[in-house]
Amino acid sequence: MLSEELAQIDLSALQALVMVNDCRSFSEASERLGVNQSTISYSIKRLRKAFNDPMFVRQGNSILSTDKCRQLAQEARDVLERMQALSSLQGFDPATSTGSVTISCNHHERMFLMPAFVRQVQQQAPQIAVNIFESAVHGKQQLKENICDIVLGPVAIFGDIYYRRKLFTDRYACIMDSSHPLAAGELTMDRYRQTRHIAVTHNGQWEALYFAALRAIDVRITPSVIVPSHDNLEALIRGTELVATIPYRLARRLSDKLTLKPFPLEVLIQIDMYWTERSHYSGLHAWTRQILADVAATI
Q1: I need a surface site. Which of 24, 102, 116, 265 has the fewest CB within 10 A?
Q2: Which 3 state secondary structure label does DSSP give 249?
Q3: pLDDT digit string (tens) for 102-113?
Q4: What separation, in Å, do the N-terminal and C-terminal C-alpha atoms of the chain show?
């Protein structure tokens, strides 16, 4: 049985929590939700009591979310998404509906999300067309210009018109030829910084997250080879002393042909899904987003 305090928590309270967490402001959250600030404050007060946590603490002129608040906000976001999807699905029948959905993503997401997603769409909604575009570094612009309906990737897209849902996380690993000197023994940071690197930069327009993490500890590397994507890394690395630092799931796919070593620094890669108000209430797109979330939960 739920406690009396928890039983009184409704979807509007969860929506208030998510909005305050995202905006880091009670007043901005109230404006975006179109309610009085006192309504927001009352909802947060009920949540504080139900979960025995302050949720937000003031630091100077801003507010910070507690650890429990951040965890609860992510769970609440998922609940709200599911409720919205169920509401939007009214009148949408995957088996008979027609239309199309366009997803923009890069190699990482195409490898681990798209195969199972396409299979499910083909099986459940055979008359729905799926278009998969390369996002490179243009995902936000593609969404803004309605070139695509959904963007997937380790990107941060901010703005009132964008919605976000976390899909999965990954970390970095290093791959190299089996004859590489670093293939034997532990890959330390000193050994890593002294080797030769190959890096993916999407035609020089993008930098992987690990570069900033390395600079934060005063480690700077200059790649010997730069490539536009992950597509042919195996062929480029084989027989050389090049080391590629790539998402672990991608590295694992190549571990039977190349040597895989843990990246000597813990760097989280978060893959999110973004869309806009234009498709937010569409039955087809709500169904599509839920399929993507379900697929992501299995990898």
Answers
A1: 24
A2: helix
A3: 999 999 999 999
A4: 33
